[in-house]
């Protein structure tokens, strides 16, 4: 690639993720992606100067760590509620959480940023204003429909012979529906800030959500009304903390109904997400029906246990997968807008190596130490045994899914950045259908562990499909990435065995927070230490970044 102004070779943008690999960065370039629609409508602004991708990644990881830790505290406080209230709450928040994938954090951010990055400063402001106004109008309609249709929505989500109180779940569903508006506006703010690589405020916004929710949960009575309002108070906080940053950087959109041509581009990119959203809605419907089905042997507390496992899994996934990928996504979009496919492939390879190096040991440790991880949630020694068993079994299954879904998460963003949304979401939708099929096959036979194993299988198949399509368009460093995966999974397996042996030698049993923390500290440290020592012995290039970071 050459500089259009001087004709001299253009230097590659900084893409150092602290884990460089010369073998990968020196891979032979493939033919450019032939799709004619990838380029922006006008010259894209230059990438922000003075911002290291490594620094951006660390900011996002720090925000995610704070968010997940405060989220664990929020889950601990929620876990003090009884099964009737908490099971109903878990059903209620499924509805706005499903819609937010389409209108908020999923489709919106992944479709908004590539288009936004291709515009000049004035068009960015106009497009953000028009899009936020449209989003508010759509959300108002969906809120009204969701409140009115709550009884039928809840009926669809729970089994006929349900372990969930229908009336309580319906009431709470109606109360939490405004959360969709709050999270959608918050996601617009996040998209605008992230596109300009201002990650600090958007990364720490979920912390505000958790803190506000925790305060509400502690101060307000533990009733259905106040549990739902605590969720809404957190949504308000998450939006408000981002507004000063938008104003400071001159990025605050003024919502309006005036149109902009780029809004159509965003909507066209979002349109294929309806397929994914529909498939995921069907997936969550199946999951929720299974969790509430007494015929499968799942009693009261199962939905609450699923929520606990979900909180723990998303903590690890958010820190070691989502955070680096979020930091890389604007740079992916910039490379795609510039058609700099050499830098694009290099960033892909480095991102895959980084995320899998981090997630492989976490996967093994979650599998070995799941009972102790779940114990951290239990603030009272008189914890609910059914909830504990459900959370432990589901988390162990999900541990196997962590690594393949790390690959899927990063590769999906490479398709979104190239505006190949339809291709990506088609693979995702098919993957969700496959996952549902495995749920029906494995959950009745394996119980709680069947949920995670089904997710792991579908994630692996989706990763292979995404690699195949990526390779056809740009070329893929398959040999280097496969060799790396074999090394880190082998080391992670050894680390998991070490942690499992260590935890079985401890003189206490999991269940309560104190033995949970002690078990994680002892066995987790031994397992992770084993992984890093072996990585040093094998001279894995990724470990150098970790060692440099520890020395600082």
Features:
disordered N terminus, globular, 0% strand, mainly alpha, 22 helices, 552 residues, 75% helix
Query: Order of SSEs, N→C?
Result: HHHHHHHHHHHHHHHHHHHHHH
**Percent of residues in β-strands:** under 5%
Query: How much is the average pLDDT?
Result: 79
* Spatial shape: globular
Radius of gyration: 23 Å
Verbal overview:
There is one protein chain. The chain is 75% helix and 0% strand. With 552 residues, the chain is mostly helical. The longest helix has 37 residues, at 302-338. The protein is globular and about 65 Å long. It starts with 21 loop residues before the first helix and ends with a helix.
Task: Give a concise summary.
The chain is 75% helix and 0% strand.
Layout of helices and strands:
Layout: H1 22-25, H2 53-78, H3 83-92, H4 94-103, H5 107-117, H6 121-148, H7 150-157, H8 166-176, H9 179-195, H10 200-219, H11 224-240, H12 243-248, H13 261-270, H14 273-291, H15 302-338, H16 341-375, H17 385-417, H18 421-446, H19 449-474, H20 478-504, H21 513-537, H22 542-551
Helix pairs in contact: 2-10, 2-15, 3-8, 3-15, 4-9, 4-14, 5-9, 5-13, 6-9, 7-8, 8-11, 9-11, 10-11, 14-18, 15-16, 15-17, 16-17, 16-20, 16-21, 17-18, 17-19, 18-19, 20-21
